[in-house]
Amino acid sequence: MEQDFCLKKKKKKTMPEVCYTLIPLVFIWGVMNVRVNYNLNSSPLTLNTSVVDGHEGGVTIFVALYDYEARTTEDLSFKKGERFQIINNTEGDWWEARSIATGRNGYIPSNYVAPADSIQAEEWYFGKMGRKDAERLLLNPGNQRGIFLVRESETTKGAYSLSIRDWDEVRGDNVKHYKIRKLDNGGYYITTRAQFDTLQKLVKHYTEHADGLCHKLTTVCPTVKPQTQGLAKDAWEIPRESLRLEVKLGQGCFGELWIKVPQFMIKYIMKKLRHDKLVPLYAVVSEEPIYIVTEFMSKGSLLDFLKEGDGKYLKLPQLVDMAAQVSPCLCYVYTNRFLEKKRIKIINIILGAKFPIKWTAPEAALYGRFTIKSDVWSFGILQTELVTKGRVPYPGMVNREVLEQVERGYRMPCPQGCPESLHDLMNQCWKKDPDERPTFEYIQSFLEDYFTATEPQYQPGENL
Q1: Which residues form the SH3 domain (predicted)?
Q2: Does one domain contain both 18 and 89?
Q3: What is the extent of the structural domain holding 37?
Q4: SS3 breakdown of the chain: % helix, strand, coil, rounded to 5?
């Protein structure tokens, strides 16, 4: 099946105008994934190495938070704890630095370092992180009672929160959150009877004594290295010969998807599209056939994970939480105008195998009206896949029958074991009038608070 979108050249558009819309989201969900290796022995990438000596405020020493292995001849390899003098920090995500240990100059990823002796350099400091994300990390399997992290407060500017994993007979494993307040003189406290000059001293105190907390602090919550923005500085476009195709990981509904789109648009989106729940885009080969290099997802596709991986053992709280993590991504994409009503159109989108009718809102499938509300419909379908551990939607129906039945008002019944309250949310996503469907902000809030506000009496069943 082929969809033809034409890019009309009426007047020269600015970068933001051109990049408001790339492609309806339902087209993106099925692209082919191929695992690749980046060939470090290929010709080095050409980098812009213009430098401004020093920066305002004098020299600040930075310390490495993680190990890093150089990918080009222009960047530096380093180990956690290595110290740097920053030569130029004005060029975004990659800074030019000088290693104090080796004396070598090169580029380093800016999110791998922090000012030495600052709170940002502490292992236990996780920066800007929401309560739910902190709970997800702390409740990971293998973590023990007393494991902790410190993060920025969501509600009070200039304050912090201490999050600790706990256990009790009523709630089982859970997370307690304590607000760390700041004194006028610069000190910190959780309770006024125990005040400290620095956050470091506060954390040290509570690692030695619970002193009113649910448990004394034991170990820092494990974390993973953040993704770099791009493979290297200004390395958004890479030569085809630097990639070696190894294993085909799979493909989606469309077979191979080819997009003929202006090169500068791809690079612009790659640099701007950043969210911790989105797979990061690393680089592009802009000559046909176009390759877009992304982070490798070790668990594979969500469908395979639910049907054949560890996902088949998950219970309803974990499945609902997975759905809750999808919704803010879609909010982000639309809020930042990467996807919107078709302000521009794209040349020659050739869809290989089949169009995903069962996942597509009727106004989009029949009339090509792709909006954020049509993605809300698709999100409702995703919820059924989660609670059924990967069952194909509308079982027993072919595509034509699905379109006809949905237009007549048919909606999928409540899956076995699924609470009616969750099925009600699905039905809201499948309202005939797109304007009556909920927003992703509402969906996220509903799902994140689902087991406290909607289903507080939930008990695990045989499957869910």
Answers
A1: 57-118
A2: no
A3: 1-45+249-455
A4: 30, 20, 50
